[in-house]
Give the backbone structure.
Amino acid sequence: MRVYYILPILIGIIGTAVSFSAYFTYKNFEDRKAHQEILSGNKETITNIQRHINENLNVIHILKAFYDASSNVTRADFQIFTAPLLEANPDIQALEWVPKVTHAQRDAFKQQAIQDGYTHYEIIEPDLENGGFKVSERRDVYYPVYYLEPYEGNEKVLGLDPPFNEPRTLAIKQATETGEITSTTSLILTQETKQQKAVLIFNPVYKGTAPLIDIEDRHNRLSGLILMALRISDTVNYVLARDLSIPKGVTVTDITDPRNPSLLFKNAENIAGSGLSSSNIVDVAGRDWQITVYPVDAAAPPFMSRRSELVFVIGMALNFFIIYIIFQLIHRRRIIENIVAQRTKEVQELSNAMEKTVEGVSVVNTQGQYIYTNEAFNQITGYTAQELIGRSWLTIIHPSHMEQIDAARQSMMQTGKATEETLGMRKDGSTFDMGVSLISKFDEQNQFIGNFCFMSDISLRKSTENYLKQANEELEEFAYRTSHDLRSPLVSSISLLELAETAIKDNNTDMAVESIRHTHRALTKLDKLVQDILALTKTKNIDEEDTPVDIAAMVEDSLMKHSHMANFNRLQIRKDFRYLAPLKLKHSRITLIIGNLVSNAIKYQDLSETISYIEISTYQDDADFVFCVKDNGLGIAQEHHKKLFKMFQRFHNKVSFGSGLGLYMMKKSADIMGGEIIFEPLEKGSSFKLIIPINKKDRS
Amino acid sequence: MKLETVMVIDDSEEDQFLSKVTIQSYDKNIKILQAHDGKDALEILATLDKQPDVIFLDINMPIMNGHEFLSIYSAHKEPSAVVIMLTSSDQKIDRDRSQAYACVKQYLIKPLKKEDLVMISNL
């Protein structure tokens, strides 16, 4: 695996760990917070319940105070006094006045009750045999319900004094004897319709203001008891209904006797466990109530909060996003690295190629000065890079071509590119044909910042081109002329022979002889032409070694060969061989040249001259061997000088029977020997010079 | 056209001879002027009071060839003679170049025949 990927993987692992850690930390924090909220909620509920119970107990205290303050409390008084208390504490099932009535007082009490408006008042007790209620049996003391508020819903208990209700009896006894507010154990109210548990809370009221001495005194002076019937569920529900927080479960248990706890109220199972439940023990009129509060639904808010999961998901998402970005960056970086590497390689290759190429490459700045030249450029021009850099790019252009090349640069400025063939000049002043390509350089802002100059020495190509062009022209000329010049004497000969035949038949001997003479002449001309063409073919094809030559001997030989020609004998021959050093030349070439010059001098004598001469000389001119032939012959008219050395050129008629190839062949031969033939018209006659450069080796 | 005087411009003596024999065999009375090249011909023509009726003109000649002759001859004065090309060259370029001149009426390939002279006299 590439080292690139270690970083994102590491970050991925760390990121995941951080996400998990954040998740757990946050979850822990949330849980604890939720826990505390629940517990504080629980406590608040407990406090509320406790406070309300105290409020209810307060009602009893207030009533007692009322009784203590009044000598006689009538039913109306009771009714008026309790109304606002009941209104303020609507969970109180009933507030009652239970007077202590001895048997002796029973009838008077009953009459009093009827007078008070309870028209059918009777002290009653539960009828255990028949069900319902019956008038109480005779007892020493009765504790009947007398004043009863609210009356509605509690009618059943009016006058009730249940003798076998042990909790009631015990509570009355305890309250009387202690003078304390006293609650019963839990019981089911007589007026109850559902089996809801309730308590009766008594508060004794004694007659007189003197201090109570003892239990007996308390019994004797007891005038009655204030009773509050409290259904526990009503009280708890009343508090819970006003609790605006989440639903809660509440359990109330009477634990006054720890061995025998009595469940007073329970509205839901505690499924949250002890960790989330709170409890407190409340003293309710002498009894110990344990109130326990707990959440009803463990899944309910704040447990519903998914914030910790959200933190984890966001953490992971952020993590993946960062990893993705890093991957992207790595990916891009690798792409860019690859591109850079590739480009660098390309540039390197290009740069190498530029340095190694046979073409001259240079870079020129906006001022037209070299700022770079490659090897080939330096080799072609003969300068070094140091010499060229900073110099005008025109340094390598021959002064005669400055204008042309300047125009090319202008054209490049406009079109971005220019190509030109021009004349270059090397450091040593020598010239060469130069091909130049100029290409503009632009920067990113498309601003002209100079140009490339590609350059090559095209001398060879140029000379080859010229040579080919010339050769081609010659070939065309050759084909044209041979087709004509070969055919012409043949056609003539055929006609002449026909003429001769006819003349012989007609016995016209003169005509026949003349025709045959003409035929002979025509065929001789043809023969000469064919010979010259063959010689020319040789001239072009033979690749011959240089051999030592004796010019004087060769001239003698040539004169001998041409001695049979007409008017040879009237020609004065002058010889002046001053070049005496050994000489190496191509034998057949020099023979051809000597032969042609000699024969031309013989052929083109001016017969009107008294003395015709031919002057043959050799000498050395500087580093050149010169072979010169002069005559005072017919010469060559000025207008023909240009065509002198071309193929099939004849400049004389009547006297001429040349093929027109002689001078052409001489020129070719001179070329092959690396020299040249120069014609110089004389005032009378002509002068031909063969000039051949000789190297040191030949001169020595 | 009545043929009284004709000029033959040709550097080849053989062809001059042949043309002369053919012309004379057609009509002995025709006067024949001989020139060996264009320059020679122009010089002769310049000396004549009466221009020839027909000029037979070869193309390949030294000093001044047929084409050069035509360019001077047709430019210098109103050509009074009919020019008949008489050459051994059957090249299209020679044909086209010579027939571009109004005075050139025919392009004949050597040798000259009697029928050619008949045809010319009927021009």
